[in-house]
Amino acid sequence: MTHELHTDVVVIGAGTSGCYLAWRLGQAGLRTIILEKQRLDQVGQDIDIFHMDEVRFDEFGLAHPSGDELTGHHATGLAWSPDRQVQNEVRYAFYVMNKPAFCRRMHRLAREAGAKILEQVRVTEPIIENGFVVGVRAEPVAPDGEPIQVRGQIVVDASGIDGVIRTQLPVELGVETDPIRPEDTLYVCLEFRDDLPAGTPTGLNFYPFHKAFWNPSYGTGAILGIGQPGSYDHAWQKHGEWREEYFGDPGRVIQTRQGRTPYRRSPYSLVGNGFMALGDTAFQTKPFSGEGVTSSFTAGQIAAEVAVEALQRGDVSRAALWPYNVRYFRGQGAKFASMFVQLPAAAELSRREVDYLFYHDLIFSGEDFRQMNLYYETKMSLGQTISMGLKLLAGVLTGGFSFASFQRLLAVSSAAAKIKALYQRFPEDPAGFDAWVVEAERLWGQA
Ligand SMILES: Cc1cc2nc3c(=O)[nH]c(=O)nc-3n(C[C@H](O)[C@H](O)[C@H](O)COP(=O)(O)OP(=O)(O)OC[C@H]3O[C@@H](n4cnc5c(N)ncnc54)[C@H](O)[C@@H]3O)c2cc1C
């Protein structure tokens, strides 16, 4: 027997993005049902420890962490050159936090605002009627559960990187449905180590050449982590190479964790009739770190406001939900798109070139990292741009930097500016969308 439930908004996934959205919707008086395939006490356990920018708590109306959520607070971090001769101080504060405990807080907030959370329920497919997503079908994970259908006026896919609903939508809905590819995925591998010898790093440490980090864990322990595309095997291999080269085999490994985070542009449209995509499902992770908790709050805040307005007007069509696209892509989305064009070029520089940039405070300076975290872009005056060009040219002349890389950086910086400008002109309504996508495809193709 299949039970049928009805609500205003159905949210798939009780991760941070789905719960944040449900909390906001509940505060606005909407009824929400969240469906989660795991037991709620398991949500977040796959990652265990994570980081959140201190500054974002006030921005998103959340109390700062304390108690079992809080593992540490770090006002600054270090960015290391590949030869480890330069350590740039990044003045940007992060909390180191326990993810299951933070997820429990998000579940509580959503429930206090009126959301219902059903755990151990695996959503299997969307229900489509008359060209609209009107609900989802789900099956129980626990042996004594029953299949259910949950119907709502809007269905939000916040199910994480695999996007269980997004990838099953009919093409006519106008949302790209292709699953994420391994080359567009960061495989994040974490090694928790204890009993570390004196002389090993403390605090937050980032090694951009290796896309690796040495961050605090519980007590005096550390997490040695890396994010690499392609596969877990590849990422663990790179992890081992980096660790061996820099630190050998310090202390002892107490546990390892691994997970995937998207590393690609968002689908061109995040909405269809009765549908919205949010969080990792919508590839809203930060291009410079792969982190996605607070960047999905930006999107969740917009999505909630748009959904409330649409439901008040009784219109949940693609056109009515379109402002989510417009506001997201003209803001954070434009900056992320620009970074997705530029950062791969920086990631492909040779070890010597990255050292050169560190030595000359270019691209990898502490202030660059601070601005990237805070504004999702670096702001440069004309004078600073000219000075950077001259330093790079000097690098080419003295052999610290190849001419090919110099040309590539110039090319991607111009392509990034064009992509950003295009996203800032994201069409006001669906009528202009097809022409916009043609131009977007052309620019991404060039980039
Ligand atoms: C190892 C690792 C470390 C990271 N560290 C950080 C960090 O320090 N800071 C940061 O900001 N970001 C970090 N990230 C990225 C961050 O975890 C994600 O961007 C963020 O969790 C995305 O939130 P979400 O709610 O969109 O998706 P998720 O957290 O993936 O939540 C989706 C939820 O949907 C549920 N679900 C999936 N399919 C179904 C289904 N069919 N039916 C019902 N439920 C379903 C899942 O069980 C899950 O609970 C890290 C990622 C990894 C892999």
Can you give a write-up of this model?
This protein is of the alpha/beta class. The protein has 3 domains: 3-64 and 99-180 and 266-330, 3-Layer(bba) Sandwich (FAD/NAD(P)-binding domain); 182-262, D-Amino Acid Oxidase, subunit A, domain 2 (D-Amino Acid Oxidase, Chain A, domain 2, 2-Layer Sandwich); 336-446, no CATH class. It has 12 helices and 20 strands. Helix 1 packs parallel to helix 3 (99-112), helix 7 (332-347) packs antiparallel against helix 11 (403-424) and helix 11 (403-424) packs antiparallel against helix 12. The relative contact order is 0.13. The model has no long low-confidence stretch (mean pLDDT 96). Residues 12-18, 35-38, 43, 47, 50-51, 122-123, 158-160, 164, 188, 190, 257, 259-261, 279-280, 285, 291-294, 296 line the site of flavin-adenine dinucleotide.
Strand order of the largest sheet: 7-6-15-16-17-14-18
Major sheet characteristics: 7 strands, mixed
Kindly report the CATH topology of the largest domain.
FAD/NAD(P)-binding domain
What small molecules are bound in this structure?
flavin-adenine dinucleotide
Counting helices, strands and paired strands, the structural category is alpha/beta
The second-level CATH architecture of the largest domain is 3-Layer(bba) Sandwich
Strand content: 15-25%
Helix content: 25-40%
